[in-house]
Every structure is written in C-alpha cells, then in structure tokens.
Amino acid sequence: MSDIVDSAVETKEHLVANLRRVIADAEDLLSATAGQTDSKMAELRSRAKENLVVAREKLADAEAALRARARHAAAATDEYVHENPWSSIGAAAALGILVGVLLGRR
C-alpha cells in the first residue's frame, strides 16, 4: 500500500517539477520579448503575466497539498504497522513470496 502512495506522490512531484519548468520558460520568453512594443504583443504579454501569477499560486497550493497528503499517508501507515505488527509482517511476507514467484517464472 505504501508503494502505491509513494508512486502517486512521486508522479505528482514530477508533475509539479514539470509545471515549474514551464513557468520558468514562460517567464524567460516574456523577458526575451520585453523590447517589442506592438500593442498586440503588449496585450499578450500582460495576459501571460497574469496567467503565470495564477499558475504560481496554484503550483504552491498543489505542493502544499501534496506534502500534506504524503505526511498523512506516512502517519496512517506508521500507525497501522504499530497497531498490527504481525499482520504487517504477514502481508509483507506474502507480497515478497508473490514477487518471488512472479520473478521466478521469467
């Protein structure tokens, strides 16, 4: 179960990192076109800046939510393992056997 949560968190972290790169690239593009004074270009730059501000806010919210979920999942897993150590050991052993059987078939 923890591996699934870790995988989901890792995927979300990858998505956040990609979004951060897109925002940085968009900011670089805005800086590169700063000298162009065409009214249409100025309007596009203004809209792009507004969208970047919104994107940064949403990115910060997504990162905070991601961290909170990861902490909650880790705490819940830790609590379950402490309350049910033998069940956890049995589940881990069963999973290990299953993986071993599947790898042994190759």
Automatic annotation (TrEMBL):
- Keywords, in A-Z order: Cell inner membrane, Cell membrane, Coiled coil, Membrane, Transmembrane, Transmembrane helix
Q: Which cell locations does it reside in? A: Cell inner membrane
Kindly list the residue ranges recorded as spanning the membrane.
86-104
Any Pfam family the entry gives: DUF883
Bilayer topology reads: Single-pass membrane protein
Name the coiled-coil region(s). 9-65
- In terms of domain of life, where is this protein from? Bacteria
Q: Which InterPro entries does the entry link to?
A: DUF883_C, DUF883_N, YqjD/ElaB
The principal localisation class reads: membrane
Question: In this protein, which residues make up the domain named DUF883?
Answer: 13-63, 77-106
Q: Does the keyword Zinc-finger apply?
A: no
Family that this chain belongs to = Belongs to the ElaB/YgaM/YqjD family.
Name assigned to this protein? ElaB/YqjD/DUF883 family membrane-anchored ribosome-binding protein
Organism this protein belongs to:
Ottowia thiooxydans
